[in-house]
Amino acid sequence: MDWLAEVAKSEKKHISNLLYIFCTDSFLLDINQRYLNHDTLTDIITFPYNNNPIESEIYVSLERVFENADTFSQGHKLYELARVLVHGLLHMCGYSDNSEEGKRTMRAKESHYLVTIFPAGF
After folding, report:
1. Which 8-state DSSP code applies to residue 22?
2. Backbone dihedral region of 75: left (phi > 0), alpha (psi from -120 to 50 degrees) or beta?
3. Could you report the average pLDDT of every consecutive run of 10 residues in the chain (122 residues)?
4. Which domains does the chain have, with CATH numbers?
5. Packing angle of the helix pair 77-92, 62-71 (nearest 10 deg)
6. How far apart, in Å, do the first and last CA atoms of the chain sit?
7. Cα separation of 1 and 4, whole Å?
8. Distance CA 10, CA 35 (A)
9. Exposure string (b/e) for 29-42, b if CB count within 10 Å is 16 or more?
10. Which strand (E) or helix (H) includes residue 81?
């Protein structure tokens, strides 16, 4: 995924080993409960091993991503998937969405990179 490498490069990072694992809601919920003590559904969980170069496992629930695309009227499920992939990478670049300001920053970065990488849209 060369476009993710370009995002990392723009953030002054390098990807060494970035593994995306696509799974179900129930699989990701189990990980969320077991490792993070959260009892909620989520679309993505990032396990960082190294920040620069980036080494990480990123788990993505395709069920949650596609449902969110419908819920938030994203239009294209692939756009929502690309947004989530960038979101996970941004976590590895040091961004957090644990506050309202952090969420706004992450959303702005996601939108910037999606428009930059996919200027014609989906």
Report:
1. E
2. left
3. 90 96 98 96 96 96 93 79 96 95 96 81 60
4. 2-117 (3.40.390.30)
5. 120
6. 17
7. 6
8. 31
9. bebbeeeeeeeeeb
10. helix 77-92
